């Protein structure tokens, strides 16, 4: 049986200028290669796909052996569903060992006889997704833990349509994985894959630039002439993630004066999780003020989420960005279609959909649920509180780079800053303010909290009467048309998230404070 697959030297000579080349994926003892987590007489620990794929801590559960387990299960699943011959695109982000994990996936799929298109460099997740769509492949695999802290990595599965694999498919994959685990002798690792040199010689692996075709697609979706005429002054913050260099270069081509921050390769992400939320955007706030820029456009660790900072240094959360994009697509582009948001999304979206006479849908949290609607009806825009937003006429997938380009288009079209446009919008539909808290609870505390909320939700909180309890995904207490609080266990991290929206920052703080007191009374602590 061969050692871990090796990346040929010539692949290192054709790297994308913004990303380091893939390194040789030799056996890495420091990562636990060859010692999968949870093995022994009891068999390997089960692997579960959460809100957006499988994520785990590198060298604990996210090991080469466990990645091979998932890859072999995927190979069998694709063969069973008749999609194996269509091939699979494999991409990866800038995290520790992502290139080697991607090579491992490619080598397993090649060993199973499945054609693979392997990204030559780190790439944004939507670039991987576009490769699946444009090449008409059967599936895609992105090695990324998205916005998680740097010690994590993950395995995102993309369907033939480019978006996240739907719940039925991930359940089928988990069933194949469990059956393969059950039939493997105790303590035996899953087989290694094919040597990459051999796989390339036999035509089973094609190494390709996935970024260039993707950026060409984005150019077709944005008003380039309007951007060139505006001559915007912008800061781009990829948060050391997979969009580094890509968005900044596109905006420069559009005539903008661009400064990129946190654009170096840093798999530790500077000590912050690469999630575009206010606590992580201090460098962006400092940059927009010191440089006198009109905005900072932000992407997360794998480039599928959007964030922004206004010229004044105010962080625009994804809720407001969603509303701005919806308004722009309808009022400026003249597009129509249904509007889909996940359960933690702002009520601004509901109000705008009603204002424009557009069908409105609300789903459980996770873009895969948005994707289900996009596959069966004409969806104008769909998105989630975390900044994952998909747009019509592209693909049913989140795209942080496209959303940021559209934010630039909004500034160019309106002739104002993003903050000014938000103020105009809220003057029309009413004020909306939002915050989120992430609580690290023990498993027992988390279970007690969720059970308590299910069985005995409060009738009042923060002085307001609960008008409705919505259990669609977690427990949402609704106090009126613009005021609510949601308690929900994360599907990607070991936390309970508390979300709140109200008509003023003070009301949001009051809601969250009472919500956290409720958590503490049930669990004995908030984990803050």
Automatic annotation (TrEMBL):
PROSITE patterns the UniProt entry points to: PGM_PMM (PS00710)
Segments of skewed composition (Basic and acidic residues): 21-31
Entry's EC annotation: 5.4.2.2
Ranges of residues in domain Alpha-D-phosphohexomutase C-terminal: 482-513
Keywords: Isomerase, Magnesium, Metal-binding, Phosphoprotein
Pathway assigned to this chain's UniProt record: Lipid metabolism; Glycolipid metabolism; diglucosyl-diacylglycerol biosynthesis
Alpha-D-phosphohexomutase alpha/beta/alpha domain location: 48-182, 213-313, 319-427
Reaction it catalyzes: alpha-D-glucose 1-phosphate = alpha-D-glucose 6-phosphate
Enzyme class of the recorded protein, top EC level: isomerase
Gene3D superfamilies on file: Alpha-D-Glucose-1,6-Bisphosphate, subunit A, domain 3 (3.40.120.10), Alpha-D-phosphohexomutase, C-terminal domain (3.30.310.50)
Region (Disordered) location: 1-46
MF terms in GO: magnesium ion binding; phosphoglucomutase activity; phosphopentomutase activity
Any one GO BP annotation for this protein: purine ribonucleoside salvage
Cofactor requirements of the protein: Mg(2+)
CDD domains: PGM_like2 (cd05800)
Protein name, UniProt field: Phosphoglucomutase
UniProt source species: Thermaerobacter marianensis (strain ATCC 700841 / DSM 12885 / JCM 10246 / 7p75a)
């Amino acid at each position: 049986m061969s050692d871990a697959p090796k990346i040929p030297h010539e692949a290192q000579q054709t790297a994308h200028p913004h990303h380091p080349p893939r390194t040789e994926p030799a056996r890495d003892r420091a990562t636990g290669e060859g010692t999968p987590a949870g093995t022994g007489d009891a068999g390997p620990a089960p692997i579960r796909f959460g809100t957006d794929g499988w994520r785990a801590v590198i060298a604990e559960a996210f090991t080469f052996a466990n990645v091979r387990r998932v890859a072999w299960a995927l190979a069998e699943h694709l063969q069973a569903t008749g999609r194996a011959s269509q091939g699979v695109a494999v991409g990866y982000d800038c995290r520790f060992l992502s290139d080697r994990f991607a090579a491992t996936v490619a080598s397993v799929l090649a060993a199973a006889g499945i054609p693979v298109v392997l990204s030559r460099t780190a790439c944004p997740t939507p670039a991987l997704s576009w490769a699946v769509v444009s090449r008409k492949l059967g599936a895609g695999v992105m090695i990324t833990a998205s916005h998680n802290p740097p010690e994590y990595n993950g395995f995102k599965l993309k369907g033939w349509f480019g978006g996240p694999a739907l719940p039925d498919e991930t359940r089928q994959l988990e069933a194949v994985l469990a059956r393969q685990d059950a039939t493997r002798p105790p303590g035996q690792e899953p087989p290694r894959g094919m040597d990459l040199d051999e796989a390339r010689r036999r035509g089973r692996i094609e190494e390709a630039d996935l970024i260039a075709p993707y950026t060409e697609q984005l150019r077709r979706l944005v008003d380039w002439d309007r951007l060139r005429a505006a001559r915007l002054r912008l800061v781009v913050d990829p948060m050391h993630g997979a969009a580094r260099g890509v968005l900044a270069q596109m905006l420069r081509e559009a005539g903008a004066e661009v400064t990129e921050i946190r654009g170096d390769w840093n798999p530790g992400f500077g000590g912050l999780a690469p999630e575009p939320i206010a606590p992580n955007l201090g460098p962006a706030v400092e940059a927009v003020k010191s440089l006198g820029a009109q905005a900072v456009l932000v992407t997360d660790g794998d480039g599928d989420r959007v964030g922004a900072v206004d010229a004044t240094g105010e962080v625009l959360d994804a809720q407001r960005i969603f509303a701005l994009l919806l308004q722009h697509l309808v009022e400026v582009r003249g597009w129509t279609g249904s509007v889909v948001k996940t359960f933690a999304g702002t009520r601004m979206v509901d109000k705008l959909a009603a204002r424009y006479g557009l069908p409105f849908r609300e789903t459980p949290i996770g873009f895969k649920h948005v994707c289900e609607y996009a596959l069966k009806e004409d969806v104008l825009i769909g998105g989630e509180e975390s900044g994952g937003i998909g747009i019509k006429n592209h693909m049913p997938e989140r795209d942080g780079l496209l959303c940021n380009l559209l934010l630039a288009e909004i500034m160019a079209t309106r002739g104002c800053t993003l903050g000014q446009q938000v103020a105009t919008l809220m003057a029309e539909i009413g004020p909306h303010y939002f915050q989120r808290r992430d609580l690290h609870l023990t498993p027992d505390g988390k279970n007690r909290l969720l059970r308590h909320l299910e069985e005995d939700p409060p009738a009042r909180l923060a002085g307001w009467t609960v008008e409705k309890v919505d259990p669609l995904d977690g427990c949402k207490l609704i106090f009126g048309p613009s005021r609510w609080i949601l308690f929900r266990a994360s599907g990607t991290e070991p936390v309970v998230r508390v979300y709140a929206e109200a008509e003023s920052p003070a009301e949001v703080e009051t809601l969250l404070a009472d919500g956290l007191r409720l958590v503490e009374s049930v669990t004995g602590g908030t984990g803050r």
